[in-house]
Amino acid sequence: MNYFVTGGAGFIGSNFVQMLLTNQLGPVSKITVFDKLTYAGNLENLREVASDPRFNFIQGDICDEELVRSSISPSDIIVHFAAESHVDRSISGPSEFIRTNVQGTQVLLSAAVEKNAGIFLHVSTDEVYGSVAQGSSLETDPLLPNSPYSASKAASDLIVRSYVQTYGLDARITRSCNNYGSNQYPEKLIPLAIKKLYEGEKIPLFGNGRNSREWIHVTDHCRGIQLVIEKGSIGEIYNIGSNQSFTNIEIAEMILSAFNLTTQSLEYVEDRPGHDFRYSLNCEKLNQKLNFKVLKKIEDEIANLVNLN
User: Fold this and answer.
1) What CA–CA distance (Å, rounded) separates 273 from 85?
2) Average confidence (pLDDT) over 132-139
3) Which end of the chain, N or C, is more open, meaning fewer C-beta atoms within 10 Å of its C-beta?
4) How far is CA 56 from the centre of its chain?
């Protein structure tokens, strides 16, 4: 099978590419990584597999229609990771999020239809559901995004759906909870906290630090994506979660413990506008219908991440 992976030099994308090329997922004949190499994309993330003869890299913008069209081959499995993804940046500069996440997705979809590509796997987020006071979000729940980032992802999800209905494209959507693991750019909570502590600074926490998130290791997320490619159905949406939920304070305390530090190394900062309080995913569809199981627990993996830095 040939894969065309957008954003493959970024955090989740690079882990997915490495897992494919090291035989941890499924058979692969060729992988073309298409990445703009913005601040969050780094070829160093792919250093270990860059010499593999099955690996090909194209530097490009997913909004570049001509380059995207010429880079995709018939029957390619397209795995679409490329996105602007940091909520804070979307608040200060929303236009780039709309351009990349909405227009860029539409460009890819049109190219996929024109080139008769294979499966189109669109990687989305639990943030499209908005804050969940109680219970867990189902794939059929309404989309209630509260930031420019999550709104742009919700819009791209709907555009993907339209290409299934209008053009018959075999597209599938995954919505994941918060990821953690190697190669993550240090603007997200866990890598930022580790970086700050190594530099002798405090961990910054928004508001009172009680916001709750569900966490999945990036390799578990990649396994879920591959499972949807192999066994999922056209037009379907699959939540990918872990049922491992913690407040930001609890995550910070795990990291502090790995450093043998106390909560005196926490610093509370002004909360971000429109900060969602809680996300939680109902993943029965993926777990029961496709038999997905999470292998890693965040309590066990935090120490490994601290030691990697």
Assistant:
1) 16
2) 97
3) C
4) 22
Domains and CATH numbers, the chain: 2-179+218-242+282-289 (3.40.50.720), 189-211+245-278+298-304 (3.90.25.10)
For residues 73 and 122, what is the distance between their CA atoms, to the nearest angstrom? 18
- Has 139 been annotated as catalytic? no
**Element holding 35 (H helix, E strand):** strand 30-35
Instruction: Calculate ∠ Cα 199-307-14, nearest 5°.
Output: 95
pLDDT-derived band at 309 (thresholds 50, 70, 90) equals low
CB within 8 Å of 91: residues ≥ 6 apart: 147, 148, 272, 273, 274
Catalytic residue among 126, 139, 157, 253: 126
Q: Is 58 exposed, middle or buried (0-12, 13-18, 19+ CB in 10 A)?
A: middle
The SS3 assignment for 173 reads strand
3-state secondary structure of 206: strand
Q: Give the tokens for residue 126.
A: 């639990």
Vertex 115: Cα angle to 112 and 118 (nearest 5): 60
pLDDT per position as a tens digit, 222-240: 999 999 999 999 999 999 9
Q: How far apart are CA 166 and CA 159, in angstroms?
A: 10
> By the 8 A CB rule, do 31 and 59 touch?
no
Choice among 3, 129, 149, 163 that is catalytic = 149
Angle, in degrees to the nearest 10, between helices 104-114 and 148-167: 20
Phi, psi of 174 (to 5 degrees): -115, 140
Cα R_g (the chain), whole angstroms: 19
- Three-class secondary structure of residue 212 per DSSP: strand
- Note if 126 is an active site residue: yes
Catalytic, 127? Answer yes
pLDDT in tens, 193-221: 999 999 999 999 999 999 999 999 999 99
